[in-house]
Automatic annotation (TrEMBL), chain A:
This is 3-oxoacyl-[acyl-carrier-protein] reductase. It comes from Thalassobaculum litoreum DSM 18839. Gene3D superfamilies: NAD(P)-binding Rossmann-like Domain (3.40.50.720). Its EC number is 1.1.1.100. It is an enzyme of class 1 (oxidoreductase). It comes from the Bacteria. NADP(+) binds at residues 38, 88, 153-157, 186.
Automatic annotation (TrEMBL), chain B:
It is found in: Cytoplasm. One of its GO terms (molecular function) is acyl carrier activity. Pfam families: PP-binding. Keywords: Cytoplasm, Fatty acid biosynthesis, Fatty acid metabolism, Lipid biosynthesis, Lipid metabolism, Phosphopantetheine, Phosphoprotein. Residues 2-77 form the Carrier domain. One of its GO terms (biological process) is lipid A biosynthetic process. It comes from Thalassobaculum litoreum DSM 18839. 4'-phosphopantetheine is transferred from CoA to a specific serine of apo-ACP by acpS. Its main location: cytoplasm. Carrier of the growing fatty acid chain in fatty acid biosynthesis. The gene is acpP. This is Acyl carrier protein. Pathway: Lipid metabolism; fatty acid biosynthesis; Glycolipid biosynthesis; KDO(2)-lipid A biosynthesis. GO terms for cellular component: cytosol; membrane.
Length: 246, 78
């Protein structure tokens, strides 16, 4: 099941914990994976660790021109059209609304939401021709529940859900699915650094009693990317240990 | 009938799966040939590929019939 042999996937934010796990998982299932991110050296390191069937296409998703150029660069690097797009890259500029600068808002919306729109617009052409495609957005529990200090981030992550539903309806009869995975609290370098007491308090809100792992997210992405999930579209899979049951 | 017209009609027949006899020059993609809005976007993509040209969005919006497509492509080639 979930064999991705012969498919080509583009994963943005592939240098991060969740992005790297997604890239590794899709690669393990047979896909050729194009890793995108801002740090060229880290991308190349990750690519070298994966071995063959891997390409690198660095891109600053906050830069509109760079985003426009990424689809062609990714397809040239892979030598094939992109079948699976994973819009995973995300940044935070947390601040209480009353102190939030326009720039904090604009950057988060640009990287977390607008880049996904631009990449989808460019890559859906090839998917329509093939009558097969998968577009997967990595949202967040925060997009559904809100979180103080994250008005910009929550707006972008909720925006991704509406965007995906609209696009899903447009391209459903072309064999293309558009879905979202919404992670809860995931163990990353950031949560590792939290004091023990704070971690325990955090876990009280998670019925599963543990933080999620990047692999928990990657498994959902793999499912949505697979042939088997062809009838699932416009959906949001919440991967949060029961923290919010939506 | 010109070569351009033949090629345009062939693409329309293939993409929309309609009978060749229905693809007259006056036929409207949406009203007569059963295309939806996404089909028209795909047709424009197919024309671009077949004739190695670029059809800007504002021009694409005006391509509503088979004749519109033929005329636009001819204007680009001329």
């Amino acid at each position: 099941m979930f064999d991705l042999s012969g498919k080509t996937a583009l994963v943005t934010g592939a240098t991060g914990g969740i992005g790297a796990a997604i890239a590794e998982t899709l690669h393990r299932q047979g896909a050729h994976v194009v890793l995108s991110g801002t740090r060229q050296a880290v991308l190349e390191e990750k690519a070298a660790a994966l071995g063959d069937r891997v390409s690198v296409a660095a891109c600053n998703l906050g830069d509109a021109e760079a985003v426009e150029a990424l689809p062609k660069a990714a397809e040239a690097a892979a030598g094939a059209p992109i079948d699976i797009l994973v819009n995973n890259a995300g940044i935070t500029r947390d601040q209480l609304l009353m102190r939030m600068k326009d720039d904090d808002w604009d950057q988060v919306i640009a990287v977390n939401l607008t880049s996904g729109f631009r990449l989808s617009r460019a890559l859906v052409r090839g998917m329509m021709k093939k009558r097969w495609g998968r577009i997967i957005g990595i949202s967040s529990i925060v997009g559904a529940t809100g979180n103080p200090g994250q008005a910009n981030y929550a707006a972008a992550k909720a925006g991704m859900v509406g965007f995906s539903k609209a696009l899903a309806a447009e391209v459903a009869n072309r064999g293309i699915t558009v879905n979202v995975v919404a992670p809860g609290f995931i163990a990353t370098a950031m949560t590792d650094a939290l004091p023990e007491a704070q971690k325990e308090k955090l876990l009280e809100s998670v019925p599963a009693g543990r933080l999620g792992t990047p692999e928990d997210i990657a498994a959902s992405v793999l499912y949505l990317a697979s042939e088997e999930a062809g009838y699932v579209t416009g959906a949001t899979i919440h991967v949060n240990g029961g923290m919010a049951m939506l | 009938m010109s070569d351009v017209a033949e090629r345009v009609k062939k693409i329309v027949v293939e993409h929309l799966g309609v009978d060749e006899s229905k693809v007259t020059e006056d036929a409207s993609f949406i009203d007569d040939l059963g295309a939806d809005s996404l089909d028209t976007v795909e047709l424009v993509m197919a024309f671009e590929e077949e004739f190695s040209c670029e059809i800007p969005d504002d021009a694409a919006e005006k391509i509503l019939t088979v004749k519109d497509a033929i005329d636009f492509i001819k204007s680009q080639e001329g």
